[in-house]
Amino acid sequence: MNVSKIMQTSSMGATCFPEDTGPCAKAPQVARIKVQLETYRLWQQFDQLGTEMIVTKAGRRMFPTFQVHITDMDPAAEYVLLMDFIPVDDKRYRYAFHSSSWITAGRADVAIPGRVHFHPDSPARGAQWMKQTVSFDRLKLTNNLLDDNGHIILNSMHRYQPRLHVVLVDQSRDCQRSAHRNFCTFSFPETRFIAVTAYQNHRITQLKIASNPFAKGFRTTDANNWSADGTKSHLSHSLLPLHPQENSPHLGMTTDKQHVYQGAASTTESKRRGRHAHVHTAPIVPLFHCQWDTLQPAERSHLD
């Protein structure tokens, strides 16, 4: 199965409604597939503020996590699920703190060769994909042009659109000739984001901390007391800024080890005060190995 060939002929769309006739008609196993974006309201809240995603040399997971619910697959057929990220435009951006908005800063940098991320359960039968939420929680974003871990490479300060591709596993001899019929593509405008090395909009920082279950060490009040726009947030002053050397208006993010130390310190302090420590030791959704074919040791960082 030539994935690169498939990616060259893919197209965007929130739902796949291919034509019933003609050379581009989709195979019946993919023609009726529908995909629903999970945590849609959360994505919408971030989109209204201008979603930002951290990219690091080592790779950073996305938050919100890209999760979908798929229906109308052929239960007996096998499918491969994969994601890619395409530039929304040919512009580079910068954040204007005086106006709290993103503005154009010139032409985009040279395009980076695109990569795809295979869901680690691929390939699997349609019945398996449809019985539960499909989560791409092991996908990581990096700005390391020399990355050899299979992470998605992005340019910082550029806007991207994540896309989901559902590919039918075709074992026939002439599968390459009909490759354009065996996949469909889904994208959701609410999941667009700007890649950054440190959060620029403080409201994005607050909303991420308020809504990320693995960020409890960075807040002192219950998540129910946080407003969606972050205007009534209550951050622990002992944890701000996360990078002591940074005095910029935005909140920088710590390394994975720093997150562990911060969480451990928070737990110790809670025990001293006689309170129950709110520290997650395992993710809410099932974790998968992040590599396709060659598996790498899974890292344990859950904070975006």
Automatic annotation (TrEMBL):
<dbReference type="GO" id="GO:0009653">
    <property type="term" value="P:anatomical structure morphogenesis"/>
</dbReference>
<feature type="domain" description="T-box">
    <location>
        <begin position="37"/>
        <end position="220"/>
    </location>
</feature>
<dbReference type="InterPro" id="IPR008967">
    <property type="entry name" value="p53-like_TF_DNA-bd_sf"/>
</dbReference>
<dbReference type="InterPro" id="IPR036960">
    <property type="entry name" value="T-box_sf"/>
</dbReference>
<dbReference type="InterPro" id="IPR018186">
    <property type="entry name" value="TF_T-box_CS"/>
</dbReference>
<keyword id="KW-0805">Transcription regulation</keyword>
<dbReference type="GO" id="GO:0001708">
    <property type="term" value="P:cell fate specification"/>
</dbReference>
<dbReference type="GO" id="GO:0000785">
    <property type="term" value="C:chromatin"/>
</dbReference>
<protein>
    <recommendedName>
        <fullName>T-box domain-containing protein</fullName>
    </recommendedName>
</protein>
<dbReference type="InterPro" id="IPR001699">
    <property type="entry name" value="TF_T-box"/>
</dbReference>
<keyword id="KW-0539">Nucleus</keyword>
<dbReference type="GO" id="GO:0000978">
    <property type="term" value="F:RNA polymerase II cis-regulatory region sequence-specific DNA binding"/>
</dbReference>
<dbReference type="GO" id="GO:0000981">
    <property type="term" value="F:DNA-binding transcription factor activity, RNA polymerase II-specific"/>
</dbReference>
<dbReference type="GO" id="GO:0045893">
    <property type="term" value="P:positive regulation of DNA-templated transcription"/>
</dbReference>
<dbReference type="InterPro" id="IPR046360">
    <property type="entry name" value="T-box_DNA-bd"/>
</dbReference>
<keyword id="KW-0238">DNA-binding</keyword>
<dbReference type="Pfam" id="PF00907">
    <property type="entry name" value="T-box"/>
</dbReference>
<dbReference type="GO" id="GO:0005634">
    <property type="term" value="C:nucleus"/>
</dbReference>
<dbReference type="GO" id="GO:0060429">
    <property type="term" value="P:epithelium development"/>
</dbReference>
<keyword id="KW-0804">Transcription</keyword>
